[in-house]
Each structure stands twice: as C-alpha cells, then as structure tokens.
Amino acid sequence: MQVTSTVEGPRAVVAASGELDVATAPELRAYLHKLIDDGASTLVVDLSDVGFLDSTTLGVLISVHKRLAEAGGLVELVIPHARLLRIFQITGLDRVFAIRSSLTEAAIQ
User: Fold this and answer.
1) Rounded CA gap, 106 and 109, in Å?
2) Domain count along the chain
3) How far is CA 54 from CA 23, 24, 50, 59, 107, in A?
4) How far apart are CA 91 and CA 58, in angstroms?
5) For labelling, which of 9, 68, 86, 109 has a CA lying 20 to 30 Å from the CA of 97?
C-alpha cells in the first residue's frame, strides 16, 4: 500500500494504491486521522489504483466518515472501477459515502 495526499485548506485529496487490507488498515487509519487532526474537514479518498479492499478497510473508512460527519465534515470516495464500486453497493455503503467516478467529478462537487 502507498498513500499520498495533497492538502488545500480544509480539503485533503488522498490517493491510495495497492492492497488495502487487515495488514495495511492501521497505517491508513493513522494517515487519515492525522489529516483530520491537522485540520482537514473534507477528505477525498481516491481508490482508483487500489487492487484489493477488505472489510477492515471499509471499517476504517466508516470510522473516518463518522468522525468527520460529527464535526460537519465530509468524506468523498473516488471509485472509477465497477469491481470496487460493487463492494460499496452490496454493503449499502454507496448510500453512506459520496462516491465519484473521477477526481474531476469530486472537484466539481
């Protein structure tokens, strides 16, 4: 897993790549929480280059969503591939997260 970010004021765009699973979830959680602690109130998490995502990672995303929502913030997910999008649809999380098909679409919202 690799994670990078670009911060513009209260908005952070986070690009994750590789496999997001039980082994990498703690690192991802710490990374996202640090951005929130540093003042980000909107996180755009780009999953375009993620090859695998498990339930532990879904738990991380849900916890970050809850934390930001309590403070009036927002988590947007960029999911351009049907295989990852299907996970969010099956679990009902497509109704929890703002899901965009591209970073361009996320920037417009």
Assistant:
1) 5
2) 1
3) 10, 10, 11, 9, 26
4) 10
5) 9
Handedness of CA 59, 63, 66, 69 (dihedral sign): negative
Rounded CA separation 22/75 (Å): 21
87, 97 contact by CB (below 8 A) = no
What SS3 class is residue 73? coil
CATH code of 12's domain: 3.30.750.24
For 12, the domain range is 2-108
List Cβ neighbours of 12 (8 Å cut-off, separation of 6 or more). 5, 6, 35, 40, 42, 43, 44
Reading the chain (109 residues) residue by residue, the pLDDT tens digits are 999 999 999 999 999 999 999 999 999 999 999 999 999 999 999 999 999 999 999 999 999 999 999 999 999 999 999 999 999 999 999 999 999 999 988 876 6
With vertex at residue 29, the alpha carbon angle to CA 63 and CA 74, rounded to the nearest 5 degrees, is 50
Q: Please, which residues have CB within 8 angstroms of residue 107's CB and are 6 or more apart in sequence?
A: none
